[in-house]
Amino acid sequence: MQGLLSVGASRSVSALHQLLGNTLTRTLAALVAATSLSACSTLNPPPTTPLADTPEPVTAQPSAAPPPAAAPIVPAPADPEPVIAMALAAPTPSTLMEHMRADMQLDHATEQRRVQQHIDWLQRHPTYLARLRPRAERYLADICESVRERGLPSELCLLPIVESALDPLAFSPGGAAGLWQFIPGTAKRYGLKIDWWVDERRDPAAATDAALDYLEDLHARFDDWALAVAAYNCGEGRVARAVRRAGEDADFFALDLPRETAAYVPRLLAFAAIAADPEAYEVALPFEDIPAEGTFAGTVETGGQIDVARAAQAIGLSVEDIYALNPGLNQWATHPAGPHRLHVPAEREAAAQEALAAIPEAERLAWIRHRIRPNQTLGGLAVAYDTDVATLKRINQLSSSRIRAGDHLLIPTSSLAANEYPTPVQARRGNGAVHVVRSGESLWTIARQYGVSTRSLMRANHVGPKDLLQIGQKIVVPHGSSTPRGRDSTMRTVTYRVRSGDSLAAIAAKFNVSVGKIAGWNGIATDALIHPGQALVLHVDVTASRT
Fold first, then answer.
1. Is 301 a catalytic residue?
2. For residue 302, which of 103, 244, 341, 370 sits 20 to 30 Å off, Cα-Cα?
3. Residue 114's domain spans which residues?
4. Which of 447, 134, 91 lies closest to 287, judged by CA?
């Protein structure tokens, strides 16, 4: 009995194992099939039947039929490699024009007749742009870099072309000067110095900063770049009145503005349209290969006022090179009150800074201790020593311009003769004289006194018709050549070194010329003090002099 029970029990366990194995096999097959189908179907996956929490009861059947063969397991197809869409990055601009085109923001309004007229003119005059190439190499990249740093429309880079043809020495009959054509009032309002020593309207870096400040202020007022540029040309008040007359929604082309301004903005837009796509207008743009980064000039600190000739010697440049790089300088030295800096060739910037720092303080300027004589004035001494009254007062701690005979003054002076400094003032002076403004004088009274036109005084001194003259201010009075016609063969230019006991009258008599001519040739007053060793330029008839 016990044996029968053992045999039956063993058969039951064997059948149970077989059935459990078949059930597990069917369950695994169902799971694989479901996984395979879900991998193949992406839109409508088949519903899955949840497995029971408990298995079906299994009855031991010794003679149970063999289970059906499980369905073959087909591996799911491999997922395709993901395709990542990558936008190709635009190449980094490397030239001036590539940067300019990338940063253009304005509507160039090429459908406007006035804009098209200026485009037509540029197409008919291709040499105009070609002539701008040398100045563009010097100034345009630095201007555009300043515009780009502020996030402004790059079309503003072209405004100095419209204003001055990129000429830092440009001067208009209305008194505007420099690359950006500032009039004196606006220049001073935006921090540019205009005095005996410098005219920062002609300094490319200083004037560019001031111009962009002004344009940003104008844009903040009008919220329209075309109106801001128009206001830059004719004044914000005039543009504001034109907008009120035309209505707040009126654009630039609907405004009644002065003729110059009506052409000014379209001219800028015409330049911008051609710069954006020169091929479309069949214009050869001569600026295409100019690098984006300004490489023409660097800036060094001078540490104080310095004689330009001394700086040039230390740096290893000619005096002419220094003035070409620093067109804002008016005189033989940098400004006594700063900013104390000079522009130098970019490749010499580090060496120039080191050379200037090595100059001893006592050697930056030459100094004279002058004993005041009877009837001498501070203005006369300023003219004689090529300085200004303000500097003499500051150095000698004078509270007024009154001086007393017998006192001494410390006076800075140049190391070279005045005519050896090719300053803009010297170039404008020519054979002219220098007049020190007195109380009650104006351009008209000075012009009448010297028999010249008011316009010639304005042009020679870069002042406008409405500028007020200051007492003590120096005015260059231009004259034509003093060489008599028909006598060129006997006329010579000589440099005379003043000797002890000389006076202007004695020298004039010696060379048979007038004191006025000597004063005019050397840019000094007729009552100027001269001192031994001073160099005077004379134009003399060698057959008439008494030497």
1. no
2. 370
3. 97-276
4. 134
